[in-house]
Amino acid sequence: MRAKPGKPAWLKKRLPPGGRVHRVERLVKDFDLNTVCHGAKCPNRNDCFHQGTATFMILGDTCTRSCRFCSIPDEPPGPPDPGEPERLAEAVKALGLTYAVVTSVTRDDLGDGGASQFAAVIRALKDRVPGVGVEVLVPDFNGSEDALFEVMDAGPTVLNHNIETVKSLYPQVRPQADYRRSLELLKQAASYGGIPAKSGIMLGLGETEAEVTATLREIRDAGVELITMGQYLQPGPECLEVEEYVEPARFERYAGVAEEMGFMAVTSGPFVRSSHQAGALYDQYRKKARRR
C-alpha cells in the first residue's frame, strides 16, 4: 500500500485577521449567493475574503457531474434563480470590486448548460457596476458552440475554461468530461475575437512532466493566452488523494515553459487557483497585449 505524502512546509498558510473576512461572508449570505470559495473548499478563501473579494458561483450549489477532485455535491439541482444576476451585481457593487469572477456548477440538466444565466449575470454587472471587469469560468456546455457564444456575446472581459488535468487522467479525475471537448471549447472561445481565453491545470494528481508540457502545448495551440497552474489539494475524504506535492521550483520551471510557448500571462505555484488574483493576471495580459 502506497504511503500518503505528508503536506510540506510550503503548503502551510497563516490565516489573515478576521474582520474583512466576516464582512464578505456576511454580505454573500445577505444577498443569498454562493461562492466557489466555500463550495470547493479553496485554501485561498480567507485571503480573498480579507482582500474584500470572492469568486461567485451561480446556478446553485449542487452539480450534475461528479468530478473526483471537487467537493461540491453531485445532487439534482433546482431551477435557475431569475433574481440571481441582479443580486450578484449588487453584491459586487457593495464590495467595491473592479474585477469580478463568476463561475458555476455544471448544469447538464439545462438545455443551454446555464449559458443564458451567465449572459444575464454579465449584463447585470456591466449595467450596475460600470467599468467592472468580468471574468467567467464556464463549464464545457456539452460542446455547444451556441451556448458558448451566447456567453461571449454578452461581452465578458475574459472567458475561462479549465482543462484541469492531463488527458490520461480524465477517466479518474473527470469521468463525465472529455479532454478534446474542452480543448475545442477553448479553441472556439479564442477564435471569437476581442476576448482572451484562459485555462488552468492542477498538478499532483499523478501526471508526468512530459504530460504537463504536452498539455500546455495543446492549450496554447488552441489559442489560449492566459494560463494558471496550481497544486491539487484533497478537499474532502470522498475526493481523490494527492499523489504528489509539487515543489515550488518545479512550478517555476513550468511557468518558464509556458512563457516560452507564448502564453501572454502565466501564474504557477502551489497556492495558485484559476480565479485567485484573476484581476492581476488579466492586467499582466493587458500590458503585454498593448506592446504586441
Keywords:
292 residues, alpha/beta, TIM Barrel, eight-stranded mixed β-sheet, 11 helices
Write the layout of secondary structure elements.
Layout lengths: L18 H12 L3 E2 H4 L5 H6 L4 E4 L25 H12 L3 E6 L10 H14 L4 E5 L7 H9 L4 E3 L9 H4 L5 H14 L4 E7 L5 H13 L4 E6 L16 H14 L3 E4 L9 H14 L1
Parallel strand pairs: 2-3, 3-4, 4-5, 5-6, 6-7, 7-8
Antiparallel strand pairs: 1-2
Helix pairs in contact: 4-5, 5-6, 6-8, 9-10
The average pLDDT value, as a whole number, equals 88
Largest sheet: 8 strands, mixed
Structural class computed from helices and strand pairing: alpha/beta
Poorly predicted spans: 37-42, 48-52
Query: Could you give the order of strands across the largest sheet?
Result: 1-2-3-4-5-6-7-8
Count of domains? 1
| CATH structural class | Alpha Beta
CATH T-level fold name: TIM Barrel
Q: What is the CATH architecture term?
A: Alpha-Beta Barrel
- Please name the fourth-level CATH homologous superfamily: Aldolase class I
Rg measurement, Å:
18 Å
Query: What is the helix fraction of residues, given as a range?
Result: 25-40%
Count of beta strands: 8
